[in-house]
Amino acid sequence: MIEVGIAGVKALVVLLMVLNVSVLLLWVERKGSALIQDRIGANRANIFGVMPFNLGFLNTLVADPLKMITKEDMVPAGADKFLHFLAPFLAVFPVLVTFAAVPFGDRLVIGDTVINLQVADLDIGILYVLAMSSLAVYGVVLGGWASNSRWALLGGIRGSAQMISYEIAMGLALVGAVMTFGTLDLQAIARAQGHHFFGVIPAWGILYQPLGFLIFLIAGIAESKRVPFDLPEGESELISGYFTEYSGMKQAAFMLSDFAESVVVAGLATTLYFGAWQVPFLFRDGFHFPGGFVVAMPHLAVVALQFGSFLGKVFALCVFQILVRWTLPRYRYDQVMDLGWKYLLPLALANMLVTGVVIVLLG
Amino acid sequence: MGALLFLVLAVLTVASALTVVLHPNPVKSALALIVTLFMLAVIFVLLEAHMIAALQIIVYAGAIMVLFLFVIMLLNLQNEDPDRGRRRLALRGLAWAGGLVLAIELALLVHGAPVGTPVATPAGYGGAEAVAKSLFTDFLLPFELTSILLLVAVVGAVVLAQKQRRPTIS
Question: What is the pTM of this model?
């Protein structure tokens, strides 16, 4: 009974983490893009015009969902009503459950119970992540098809071709990391990054797999369908692509799934390449700095630091994705396909080969 | 608990499999097939075959079925028109006969299957390590042959799809 409760609490924590970071990103994106483009950005949300200063952050967070929820929900004539209704759910669900395999801390000890800070302790963690991300394409495809609209259909077809193409490069990039750590279990991978080279450099995955990280990040951004890979939406050609015919909360669900997907990509990149929840020099009993300098810390503080470190890394990578988005122009469609198949795929294969050779040589 | 779960899953699997065959709309048939494959994956999880379950979703539900849907949408297939022409009727008869033969075969197989007491699976059974070990030792030859077969298929697809080169005038 207690175990079920613990599992429920862990699931809730992770769910709230993904949702909150996604919504925060929405605000960072709006204000950040304004900063990059030398504008002021979202500043209309004010309470009766009497707020002395603009709490853009809080106001936008409250005002946007309120607006979305109260908007009219439209289904276009001739649309497949059932599938039109189902598509937003199919877009959000796989993204949210992906995080179940991602560890957000080492372990929490309360009395005699040891809680592994990961929702689902899977020995095939990475395969689970790939399986769920491969299901994310159906929301896009069905949203495009069920709307009975040419723009939406074009967006859906573009989206499915793009997501399948980049999934391959992403999977092969992950193979390099799996070979390095010798396990598919994400928590084991996180723990394997706990030591230090020469006692000073934290042994994070990016040191073993720099090219793998680059390929993973590019493929991940392409999977989340954001600029420079937002061809499925491409508002200058397709209005807004596969969710052209959606309004209100359903359209918000599609947008949320895009943001949540960038959070998932950031979470995976953190786990595999940036030491997951590891803090440099922090061990289970406190800091051990090089030179024998030791700061002992209580268990709860260590767990909080690790969780904070994970969240901070995830957020930093998310912000990086937003910077990329507002820096680069959109690719042409044939360029997207070329990049995926002619550059990323061979590079990922080469990365695999080199990793294998190095592993064999080092024995 | 396990038996109850299996029962629910089995009913859902069979129902969605029937939908694949009986639904007139090709897109919905394809969707039902995705549900069927997903349910099979869940049944694999119940059987402790985690690795196979993940591969089932990645390969079948996630990749192959997307291509199915993709093609159906590109060709813009409409609802199939039931009972059109004599040829369709003949095909239908053939399908029923084939289905009947399969059903009889299945019944015979189930009837002849040895009934034993269930044995507890060893630790790690069905995980990535166990599957990989048997794949690269006992089943190495079939595994490699399959990969050659797939390679041939890929090369064939590229040859068929490439643009025709103009014959050079000598």
Answer: 0.84
